[in-house]
Amino acid sequence: MRGQAIWAPYQPRADHPWELRWAAHLFRRAGFGGDANTLRQAVAEGPTKTIDRLLEPAADVEEFEATFDRFEKTAAAGNSTDMLRAWWLRRMIETPHPLLEKLTLFWHDHFAAANRHVSSPQLMARHIRTLRSGALGSYRTLLQSAVDDPALLLSLGAQQSRRARPAKNVARQLLASWGVGPDHFSSRDLHETARALTGRFVLQNQLRVLPREHDPDPKNVLGQTGNWNAEDVVRIVAAHPATSENLVRKLYAWLISETEQPSPAQLAPLVQKFGPQGQILPVVETMLRSEHFFSAHAYRQRIKSPVEWAVGLARSLERTPPTVQLGEQLADLGQSLYDPPTSSGFPRGTDWIQPLTLLGRWQVADQIAAAGPGDLKALADRLAGNQPGKQAAWLAELLLDGQLPAISPEEPANERAEEVVSRLVTLFTRQPEYQLA
Amino acid sequence: MSPHRRAFLKSLVGFPSLVSLSPVIPPLLARTVLADSACPAASDNVLVLLQLSGGNDGLNTIVPVGDDQYARHRRTLRFQPGEVLRIDDYAGFHPELRELARLFAEARLSVVQSVGYPDSSRDHEVALRDWHTAQPGHEHADTGWLGRALDSATPASPMSGIIVGSIRQPQVMTAARTVAPRLHSLQQLAVNDLEPAVYQSPHSPTSGNPLLDHVRRHSRIARLNRHRMGDVLAGSDRRARYPDSPLAAQFHIIADLLRAELGTRVFFAELGGDGFGGFDNHANQRDNHAALLRQLSQAVAAFLDDLASTAWTDRVLLVTFSEFGRTLSENGRRGTDHGAAAPLFLAGNGLRGGLIGPPPDLNDLQADAPVPHTDFRSVYATLLEQWLALPSQPILGRSFPSLDLLPRRDA
């Protein structure tokens, strides 16, 4: 299919009706999954209105973020990011603007600052706040703040770049990972970009620009010659078509599919929308509204990362598990927020799934289901009625898009009604399908 | 399953449940799942890497009692020739290393002497990072040498690693793609009993979704693993006696995981990371060091003796390391300070055995510590090439000469 057709907005119709699984799919990708009321409302209201609200939630998002920013301030006071991690997970579980949080996580994976190099929870907290405030804005602005962010500079080992010895780490990252990609720049581009970034130091956790250490001579970066500084190379890299295509491709893998490599022609309309400023929201919006998004090309074509998976379960079941412990358990499953393993971010896709990480997920799922507030049975009774069959159908809607799995428990289990719900959660969350987003 | 139960489930989900599996998976299924799965062949070797945290005093581990310099500089901490467990006229094991000395006599333990690297750091954090990343001086190295080893395995024969115990995400296992989960107790695997029916058919037709097929395949193995784990924990061949110590508990977990044949090829464990400074004995070293070495010696021996009753006995190699050795001189507080080269242990069946490489030259010191003779990356290269059958050069960044450490069963 060519570009234009697949990005046309999806309109429900007889042979492709708007139904629960599409609403659930939308909330998994644009956020961390929906709870019962959210999904019911979405099914009732249709895709257009639902996506409108995902893009612009009615709730007071500013107030919510300000509250959590205050919590984080205290949490960042110590030496470790354990508490920050716990608050971020909590924020993801409770946010009224899940799309913003999902994209913040996307940018964390993209820029991949790691506290083991930064050694400052305060800087890490500020870094993630910066990503959040720009998560749906302009990529060029995000890139500029990245290049100026002491957390990223420390994470990349770029404490200083002197005129006599230009540090290449940031330049390499800017070109290869954040920009045009490894195939689109030469070693000369790298060297000259590094020269443009000279004179920048991190002193006492602050960026300092020392003009006498900046190389003032002309540089040629990606075919453009001038007396470039940091702002200039950010502008040049951001405006390069290869950068736009790389970013759109990466967003595609997050929001649509990890299994298919879209062709440049398919991406072209989005690359154009992204433009030299890197307009994130229009691209995200086009993807989420598209025919392509609501198709087999996207449905379950992504594996949930541990964080997506755990936050999603907590949100679906309206649980608030203790997130300090959860943060550590998710780190053991390979995803430690604030500490991605390399400057290319977290593992992805099938990397997440091996027998032991699945056993870990199964264990954590039961813990999340057992967490408060109240007990899950009460919620099920209230929302689905107290018949086991109805509760099973309700949970299948919440967790498996309404598709009841065939069940074959192997041992006689206690059949007390109180335990039915939690056993069903156990069963449903272990479905291979539940690991897919 | 009781008819009553079946009826209950039927009522629960509104349509008949499929035929259930018996609690014990039939051997045929187990075999087909394995054949079908990413489980490595049973012939694959296993590496257990043990970190002695804090900087172990190599000179009081393999003690050069025959060297006047040793006696002269170790006024309060020195051992007399009669106290150590004699290796030769020059050196002997610390008196608490009785079990290791026994393994040494049985050629199940080798000692690689004077291992380190040029201009080694004496800062805990930096030196540990160097040992973990195998890239000394690269402050911003991200991945560990074992993490890169895991990543370098092919999709056709993937390698998995497990971190055992309470240490959090050690850098040595950090990989760009491969997740090395941590297990601090087997309870983590003892998740409860409900299972999706999808496991019933190991050869269920592919779904057309490669991600779903991947998760299904690994879910089946996970379930098999859990059953095997249950069998192992309930089994009669788990009689081995382990001493009551944190390290022995970690080894016991590793032995159980091996018995359950989870296919894991790399394990990481730690001794001395409990927050009491471990091997970092700047003051009153004697008793603390002795207790740690006793724990090490007994736990390693219990582990190897336990494995001796399994098919793993020839396939497991345990290797110790510490971030640095210690100074030759005492520091006036009955302790020693951060040093450089130190010995490391290799334990397993049919090793070449003996002392490998020359002993530390106590007349050739750098800032009061023995200089290295064998580069630690040569040890890593040997383990990668000859034990894990992986090319070492891409993992270590350049090639290092292999050492003559390992059994030569095949050659």
Distance between the termini of chain B: 53 Å
H and E string of chain B: HHEEHEEHEHHEEHHEHEEEEEEEEHH
The major β-sheet of chain A equals: 3 strands, antiparallel
> What's the CATH class of chain B, please?
Alpha Beta
Mean pLDDT of chain B: 85
Uncertain runs of chain B = 1-42, 196-202
How many DSSP helices of chain A? 23
Shape of chain B: globular
Distance between the termini of chain A: 23 Å
Give a description of the structure.
The complex is a heterodimer of chains A (437) and B (411). Chain A is mainly alpha-helical and 437 residues long. Among the domains of chain A are: 138-239, no CATH class; 306-435, no CATH class. Chain A has 23 helices and five strands. Chain A has helices spanning 3-7, 20-30, 36-45, 47-55, 61-75, 82-94, 98-111, 115-118, 121-134, 139-147, 150-155, 169-177, 187-196, 230-239, 241-255, 264-274, 280-289, 306-316, 323-332, 355-370, 376-384, 388-400, 417-429, and strands spanning 160-161, 200-203, 206-209, 219-221, 224-226. Chain A has a three-stranded antiparallel beta sheet. In chain A, strands 4-5 form a two-stranded antiparallel ribbon. The longest helix of chain A has 16 residues, at 355-370. The two termini of chain A are 23 Å apart. By secondary structure, chain B is of the alpha/beta class. Chain B has helices spanning 3-13, 27-36, 68-73, 98-105, 124-133, 145-152, 210-234, 246-259, 285-307, 376-387, 392-396; strands at residues 46-52, 62-63, 85-86, 92-93, 109-116, 161-164, 182-183, 266-271, 316-322, 326-330, 336-338, 342-347, 354-356, 365-366, 369-370, 374-375. In chain B, the strands form four sheets. In chain B, strands 1, 5, 6, 7, 8, 9, 12, 13 and 16 form a nine-stranded mixed beta sheet that branches. Mean pLDDT of chain B is 85; it is low at 1-42 and 196-202. Helices cover 32% and strands 15% of the residues of chain B. Chain B has a single domain, classed as Alkaline Phosphatase, subunit A (3-Layer(aba) Sandwich). In chain B, strand 10 and strand 11 (336-338) form a beta hairpin. Chains A and B meet through helix 19, helix 20, helix 22 and helix 23 of A and helix 1, strand 7 and helix 7 of B.
